[in-house]
Design brief:
By secondary structure, this protein is α+β, with helices and mostly antiparallel strands. It is built from eight helices and 14 strands. The protein folds into two domains: 148 residues, Gcn5-related N-acetyltransferase (GNAT) (Aminopeptidase, 3-Layer(aba) Sandwich); 157 residues, 2-Layer Sandwich (Translation Initiation Factor IF3).
Length: 318
């Protein structure tokens, strides 16, 4: 079996492969069109690892490139009917993991079952938290974030400050596994952090950079500018929630203890500790993700995901 990175000129064959094994429920219908697939590959918005044997196409591993923080989200593994189907899928996953860690510095995937969680853990992944499913009112639809990071890569991870936030049991477990960090690097002063586009939207006390996701009806706040960023976030969140937006998400560098406390008081819930998530200059900085409007936790968790979310919530509280 040979593994290789897909090229734009292979788009026609790859789109045909995706159409042959996936139906109308496949979440990435854009891969069915050769021209769209070629453009996505040419623009480096996606990466596809292709598994072949002689002239036979055995499978494709899809990943999404996040250029703003040089990370790779491992997504769907599509494998044709084959006696070694599980081995092919494992090889595709490992190839994507190596690509993400070596070429980008951070690779991650989302696990929705106990088996996928355990497979990822067996391959060296660490649970970084959970992602509430966009558009869902049920916490059982959440997905666990499983990640890999290259601490000695091109962009060195900065040692996070000791604080109530980084001292939580959940954060401590992740930090202790990543001892190779660059010390005495100042953390970002502004928050939230993300991929702001354009000039932002004015609010009464400043400006804010939101990204609206129609699929799931949620907003990610990429940045805020003004004397009182928490007030800007509060004002914006109140406004969009009244207009029917389901939830609001943001990412906070872990040095902002007071902002973290203030945002929690407003109703934002911490859902993930993301090591080396924010990239600035030569360094990566640990962040925490918070969500306003996340589904309620289950008082008596029954499923694997419900139990995992309950433990994350308990261990992440500062």
């Amino acid at each position: 079996m040979r593994l290789s990175l897909a090229r734009p000129e292979q788009a026609a064959r790859l789109s045909q492969f995706y159409r042959s094994i996936h139906g109308p429920d496949f979440p990435h219908q854009e891969l069915f069109k050769a021209e769209t697939l070629a453009n996505l590959l040419a623009d480096q918005e996606i990466a596809i690892v292709v598994a072949t044997h002689e002239q036979e196409l055995l499978g494709c591993g899809l990943a999404f490139v996040r250029s703003w923080n040089q990370s790779l989200e491992i997504s769907t593994l599509s494998v044709a009917a084959h006696p070694r189907r599980s081995d092919i899928a494992r090889a595709l996953f490992e190839a994507l993991r190596r690509l993400g860690v070596k070429s980008y510095g951070v690779a991650f995937f989302r696990a929705s079952t106990e088996s996928s969680f355990r497979r990822g853990r067996d391959m060296g992944a660490t649970c970084w938290g959970y992602r509430p499913a966009p558009g869902s009112a049920s916490i059982s639809d959440a997905e666990l974030i499983m990640g890999f990071i290259n601490p000695g890569g091109q962009h060195r991870r900065a040692d996070p400050p000791h604080s109530a936030l980084t001292a939580t049991p959940f954060a401590s477990r992740i930090i202790d596994l990543l001892s190779d960090a660059e010390r005495n690097v100042p953390y970002p002063k502004s928050f939230p952090v993300g991929c702001p586009r354009g000039t932002g939207a004015p609010v009464i006390s400043g400006r804010i950079w939101p990204t609206y996701h129609s699929r799931g009806n949620f907003i990610t706040i990429e940045n805020a500018a003004g004397t009182f960023p928490v007030e800007i976030i509060k004002e914006f969140t109140d406004k969009v929630r009244k207009k029917g937006v389901r939830d609001v998400r943001l990412t906070l560098p872990v040095n902002h203890d007071q902002a973290y406390s203030d945002l929690k008081a407003l109703g934002f819930r911490p859902v993930a500790y993301l090591p080396g998530w924010y990239l600035r200059g030569p360094n990566r900085f640990d962040c925490i993700e918070l969500v306003f409007g996340a589904p309620s936790l289950v008082s008596n968790p029954q499923t694997f995901v419900e139990r995992a979310v309950a433990k994350i919530h308990r261990d992440l509280r500062a």
